[in-house]
């Protein structure tokens, strides 16, 4: 059996992260694969492994030997799952590996927006504290979270975990998902989307990216937010109209934003958020703790082993012998988290 890893570098440098695959067959590992080289590199493969490299219908048509696609991710928007279904090819994701890491990172970003720890550290090292008489200096506004309202857009695994952490900080939690729930059924109160943006002091995005959510955060919704509010995006960059967000920050209509994802990655030099005030940008790392990457590799290997044994699991397109399929709920689509 030939196994081709199309973009292995995000999991780690070299072949070491993929050593477990070698007992299953011949393994080829590429750091990255340009779109126009996918079919050539995947020729003869029984199993393809991808993180972000697109696998579209034309590529699938060119690979008659292909029997299984394994994603080193929760989200599967890079694969034409319907075309794979027509070919009878199971597509398996890793539905839960980064929940704790991403939720923790949301608060790393939020606490930096609240306290600007790095800026204060830099001021001390630049001599600003020692050069004046006060025991305390404040370089920025400082914000306490207790009593504030956290608005969560997308209430799957990560969204719920973010809500739990927000409650631990003494915040009120409201959330929006495609289906409302009865008052008191969950720790968060369901909210319509526009009302959530108007009420929340912090809006954190955890919804999937698709036709209905691309450009979800635009000028209309940003205008509804409080001038003192923060926006956090650890999901998908294209959920936000970046020019509208940059404009809101420049005009003081929003206190701050923190994004771990951008509409095009790596970020382009012309991205308007790079010059926007009060905007933190990090390079898509919320998913990438040592612990999360270890869980991801273990689960990906288990998915491929299950396919080899004729019992594919975590199948997102309903194909497979006795497949244990993940349902198309907020939980499995939530990868907009990114989760990587």
Could you please describe the fold and organization of this structure?
By secondary structure, this protein is an alpha/beta fold. The protein folds into 2 domains: 2-97 and 289-337, NAD(P)-binding Rossmann-like Domain (Rossmann fold), CATH 3.40.50.720; 99-281, NAD(P)-binding Rossmann-like Domain (Rossmann fold, 3-Layer(aba) Sandwich). It has 11 helices and 14 strands. The strands form 3 sheets. The chain has a 7-stranded parallel beta sheet, with helices on both faces. Helix 8 links the parallel strand 9 (202-205) and strand 10. Helix 4 packs across helix 6 (157-168). The two termini are 27 Å apart. Residues 321-340 have low confidence and may be disordered.
């Amino acid at each position: 059996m030939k196994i081709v890893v199309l973009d292995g570098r995000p999991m780690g440098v070299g072949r070491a992260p993929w050593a477990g695959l070698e007992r299953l067959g011949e393994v080829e590992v590429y750091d990255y694969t340009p779109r126009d080289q996918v079919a050539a590199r995947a020729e003869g493969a029984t199993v393809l492994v991808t993180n972000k490299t697109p696998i579209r219908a034309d590529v699938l048509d060119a690979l008659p030997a292909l029997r299984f696609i394994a994603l080193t991710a929760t989200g599967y928007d890079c694969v034409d799952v319907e075309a794979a279904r027509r070919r009878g090819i199971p597509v398996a994701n890793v539905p839960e590996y980064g929940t704790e890491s991403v939720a923790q990172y949301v608060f790393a970003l939020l606490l930096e927006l609240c306290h600007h720890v790095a800026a204060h550290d830099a001021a001390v090292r630049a001599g600003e504290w020692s050069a004046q008489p006060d025991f305390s200096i404040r370089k920025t506004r400082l914000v306490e979270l207790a009593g504030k309202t956290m608005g969560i857009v997308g209430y799957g695994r990560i969204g719920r975990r973010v809500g739990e952490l927000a409650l631990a900080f003494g915040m009120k939690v409201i959330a929006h998902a495609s289906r409302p729930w009865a008052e008191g059924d969950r720790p968060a109160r369901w909210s319509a989307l526009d009302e959530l943006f108007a009420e929340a002091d912090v809006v954190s995005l955890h919804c999937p990216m698709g036709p209905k959510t691309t450009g979800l955060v635009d000028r209309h919704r940003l205008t509804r937010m409080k001038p003192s509010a923060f926006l956090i995006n650890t999901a998908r960059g294209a959920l936000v109209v970046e020019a509208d967000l940059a404009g809101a920050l420049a005009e003081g209509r929003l206190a701050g934003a923190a994004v771990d994802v951008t509409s095009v990655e790596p970020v382009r030099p012309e991205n308007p958020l790079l010059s926007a005030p009060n905007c933190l940008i990090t390079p898509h790392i919320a998913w990438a703790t040592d612990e999360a990457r270890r869980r991801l590799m273990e689960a990906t290997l288990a998915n491929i082993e299950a396919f080899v044994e004729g019992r594919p699991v975590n199948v997102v397109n309903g194909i497979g012998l006795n497949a244990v399929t993940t349902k198309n709920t907020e939980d499995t689509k939530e990868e907009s988290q990114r989760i990587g």
